[in-house]
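Illustration: Guanylate cyclase domain-containing protein.
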Amino acid sequence: MDDSRFNWTLIYAVLLALATLVTLATLLLSFKQILVNESAVQYITYSVVRSCFIYSFSRFLFYLCVIVNYSGVRDVLDDVENGQLVGVRVIYSDETSSGKSMVVLLALIGDVALLCMTFWVILLAYEMARLIAKSMDRGRAMESHIVHVYCVRTYGIAFLFAALMIVSALLSPQQERTVRDIALTFQLVCVWVSFLYPLGCTLFLSLKKRTKKVVPPTSRFLHRRIRNLVIVYCVLVFPSCLVELLNRVIDVPIIWVGLSQALYYLSGGASALVIGTSVTCCYRTLRPVMPPSVYEQLLEKGYFPEELEHDRIVEPPMYRPIFVNTDIEGSTSLWATNTQAMSDALSLHDDLMRKELLRCNGYEITTAGDAFQLAFHTVSDAIRYCMHVQSKLLKVDWPPSILKTPHAARCYDIWGHLLFNGLRVRMAIHDGDEQLICSKHPTTGKMTYLGMSETVARELGDMGKGGQILISESALAIYEDERAILSEDKVHGAFSKQPFDLFERMDLGISFQLYELISTKIGDRFRRDRQPRNELASSRLMLLHPK
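Result:
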């Protein structure tokens, strides 16, 4: 074996060792719990990484045998290849396989793992595209059944491939070559399909995304994941497929064969890296030295999963948005009492509001002083957001001086349960109608909404008391419809409702019932809310000022 070919073998071994380490780390760190009975996508993703690991590890061991000349395999390959770049599949030929059962077994394991990997990649693209289009799973029983079917088909075909390769060794030399060529050609076709099909799915979904017909905002995360996987996989796999196809009809220069094969050997590790991690890891590493402005921009874009539940980009709802309007009770008095303390408290309030907004897939339309105007894609997300904010306001470490004011003091009921702590935020939920005009602000780039329902939503935000969550009758009806459609209701059982007041605008001919949503975690803080605020405080609450 000449030096140039031996150098390629060393390069392959190093790249495969790196791919093996990456895939192993992904298996150990990113798949601590595989929900086989609950998610076909998760199981298929795990199977892709597992197949990549087996393939990379077996190929690494193969080239290690070549480097150390195990059982004279390097000398035999040098003779058979006749000056061409050393390849794995030549080990299957009769003149090289004799007495090399261990090396042949490593090559066969790698080819079987490669075939399985192609099937799992195709299935992963199909399942993710289906989730993007339908935005719901099949239910536990059906997901488990689908996983079982995929396993039977994938491993069944892999078993037939391995059996065909083994049986070919028992045939005459001519028959052996024919059978082996058929099996390896089938494998090559599967590799081509494994990047052409995901590429087609991605292009189709991207086209539908631009026309805003298929991809819902809650599925943009899946679309981005499959797009990144397809880009990495295609860039690394396509050159090898093309070179192998051309090599059947012409003599491809050794440099192109070597480079394409090197890229292919990186495909497993790179795919595992895309599946198991993201650019978030890099941002998390730089977080301690990151400027606050950069951190806020990245936070708004969905990074830092330890602070956000979903790594996704939140886009403004374009059709019948669900408005949430918030306001701090007694803010004018608080500003007049202690400007610095109120400034610090408002900063804590704003951070909490925006942090929970991203977690609940909400969109910030604008702020006016201490009031927020927000939009959500579903009423469920809007309710979940309000419940989370009210609960976490009780846990904020407010400035001590702000807790000494009547509008922000800690309040307990007669049993000692904490009812209020710090700033008290009133919140109202209302649904937008079909007559809304949506347009981007020319300066800020933010989506703005103009229409009667938006005006009504802002007025509802001023009707409640600090700590109350109000919802319009129409928005509540939409929530009931969502419960029948959504596969998972994250707020069911988290609140109760009771009638509040009628909202009436005689000049506009508008009249509808309002309801108050009461968090089951906090309880009813306004059992006597028909009384004036100071009477409520004296009759039901014990106001405790910090010493």
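Reading the tokens back as a structure: The two ends are 85 Å apart (CA to CA).
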